Amino acid sequence: MGAGLVGSLLSLYLAQRGHEVTIYERRADLRKAGSVEGRSINLALSDRGWRALEGVGIGEEIRRVGIPMYRRVMHDQQGQLSFQPYGQDNQAIYSVSRAGLNRTLLDLAEQNPRIQLRFNEQCLGIDLRANHLELRDTLTGAQHTVPFQQLFGTDGAFSAVRGAMQRTDRFNYSQSYLEYGYKELTIEAGPGGEWPLEKNALHIWPRGQYLMIALPNLDGSFNCTLFFPYEGAHSFAALQTAAQVQAFFEEIFPDALPLMPDLREEFFQNPVGSLVTVRCFPWAFDDNVLLLGDASHAIVPFYGQGMNAGFEDCTVLNELLEHHGNDWSTVFEQFQRQRKPDADAMAELALYNFEEMRDRVADPRFLLQKKIESKIAAQYPGQWLSLYSQVTFSHIPYAEAWANGQRQEQIMRRLMPHIQAEADFAKPAVQTLIRNELAQQERQPPSEG
Ligand SMILES: Cc1cc2nc3c(=O)[nH]c(=O)nc-3n(C[C@H](O)[C@H](O)[C@H](O)COP(=O)(O)OP(=O)(O)OC[C@H]3O[C@@H](n4cnc5c(N)ncnc54)[C@H](O)[C@@H]3O)c2cc1C
Ligand SMILES: NC(=O)C1=CN([C@@H]2O[C@H](COP(=O)(O)OP(=O)(O)OC[C@H]3O[C@@H](n4cnc5c(N)ncnc54)[C@H](OP(=O)(O)O)[C@@H]3O)[C@@H](O)[C@H]2O)C=CC1
Ligand SMILES: Nc1ccccc1C(=O)C[C@H](N)C(=O)O
């Protein structure tokens, strides 16, 4: 259910294993003119996502249209820039078009004789005893029921499949909204289609309690997202007129404003999206239904990992199917046991990165700490991989990455009082401290992931 990013990719994996798949999608086919596309225009794709795409043979095709972003570029209120690389020199997260990626996945699904696509079909409910879907044709309004054998709920953060499971016994569910919303805005391409800001970077305007970010598009423009409180002195509620928006951007984002000629129109035309974390369990109902992607673990977007995590779900499910064949009961059970702690950790990481992006990246001490961490990583490659790299450039389970990251943070808290400048790293006393900390870490048993 749902032909979004995860549903369309999952269908390819299932078809590859010889299964007949029908995908139902409430929206119109986004490849046809006039269809309404999802909200965020571009997404950051990283190693977990790449691995899943490579598993169905489209890694290269997507990489050709992705823009590598090698570092964060922070813009302060005076327009001064500071920088933070994401990983080693050649490591990057990639800005890709959500619609373009979804289109490519749907094209592949359509070409596959084992996959049937049914657009304009909205799931209204599920009869979990009879294994029937209740569907509504959104063009005619007609309702009908369809039987299923295995149902994969990939219908996003507001999943109808999950809605049906919520009415079963001992189903745990929580949703938690931030008091922030987001609005998408545009930085226009320069004359001749050049990028008016550094192209191969993710731009951040950290402002303490809120932030704006920008990701590059292929046409020279940037897609900006303002993450902003709903209420308060600086909030969506406080910006009611074009003059207020203009004055606010002049004061807070002065270097971005001249690059946003459509700001006043966009600000009032584009919706404010809400930001929610959804946690639930179980994800499986008997050997019939399984939730994947945002349907089982919607997270706030600040790590750029929601889609990557959903794609990794596909990789993990595929590995379990490889191992257990069509023993759905075992596959579903193992899938949810393995993935739930990782999804929970990713939800925490996403909230943690919100604070980092809106606040900590503007602190020179934080940037110094990150430089020192990368020096430690370079000196002790087998013993130190930054939390960001573990999440973004590795396949270490999220829960393990989060536990390792918290341990590293403790070490840095002990180390940083001895460091006032980058050069202090080479001091014998600092080197000894680091050696001791790492030796101590080696002696500790690995944390339970
Ligand atoms: C502002 C923002 C920025 C983001 N940036 C990133 C990023 O940079 N990197 C990243 O990895 N992730 C990012 N994410 C997260 C990412 O968008 C999601 O994790 C991802 O789209 C989840 O894919 P999905 O297939 O599970 O759900 P969706 O993409 O939402 O797909 C669900 C599909 O199901 C359909 N559907 C819904 N209800 C029904 C129904 N009742 N019947 C039939 N069909 C239905 C929907 O129309 C949709 O097509 C971002 C999210 C937001 C909000
Ligand atoms: N974690 C997060 O904070 C968020 C994640 N997302 C994810 O981003 C992606 C793109 O989103 P997009 O496709 O634009 O989805 P939308 O936000 O447009 O939602 C699609 C449908 O979900 C229902 N819906 C929307 N908001 C709510 C709500 N607050 N409570 C209940 N139902 C709601 C509406 O259905 P109806 O018209 O029937 O009411 C809407 O038409 C998706 O993956 C989604 O899962 C989206 C928003 C926030
Ligand atoms: N795609 C996003 C969408 C919204 C907010 C952040 C991102 C990021 O990708 C942040 C990036 N991972 C960072 O840590 O700098």
What key attributes describe this structure?
FAD/NAD(P)-binding domain; alpha+beta; three-stranded antiparallel β-sheet; binds NADPH dihydro-nicotinamide-adenine-dinucleotide phosphate; binds flavin-adenine dinucleotide; binds (2S)-2-amino-4-(2-aminophenyl)-4-oxobutanoic acid; 449 residues; 22% strand; seven-stranded mixed β-sheet
Notes on the protein architecture:
Pathway: Cofactor biosynthesis; NAD(+) biosynthesis; quinolinate from L-kynurenine: step 1/3. It comes from Hymenobacter fastidiosus. Its cofactor is FAD. Residues 2-347 form the FAD-binding domain. Keywords: FAD, Flavoprotein, Monooxygenase, NADP, Oxidoreductase, Pyridine nucleotide biosynthesis. This protein is α+β, with helices and mostly antiparallel strands and 449 residues long. The chain has 3 domains: 5-70 and 92-173 and 276-355, FAD/NAD(P)-binding domain, CATH 3.50.50; 176-274; 363-443, no CATH class. 39% of the residues lie in helices and 22% in strands. The protein has 14 helices and 18 strands. It has helices spanning 5-16, 47-54, 59-65, 98-111, 160-165, 242-252, 263-269, 294-297, 306-324, 328-358, 364-379, 387-392, 398-415, 428-443, and strands at residues 21-24, 42-45, 67-69, 71-75, 81-85, 93-97, 115-118, 121-127, 132-137, 143-147, 151-153, 172-187, 201-206, 211-216, 222-229, 273-281, 284-285, 289-291. The protein is globular, with a radius of gyration of 23 Å. 37% of the residues are buried. The structure holds flavin-adenine dinucleotide (FAD), NADPH dihydro-nicotinamide-adenine-dinucleotide phosphate and (2S)-2-amino-4-(2-aminophenyl)-4-oxobutanoic acid (KYN). Residues 4, 38-39, 156-158, 273-276, 294, 298-300 line the site of NADPH dihydro-nicotinamide-adenine-dinucleotide phosphate (NDP). Flavin-adenine dinucleotide binds at residues 1-7, 24-27, 39-40, 43-44, 122-123, 154-156, 160, 182, 225, 273, 293-295, 301, 304-308, 310.
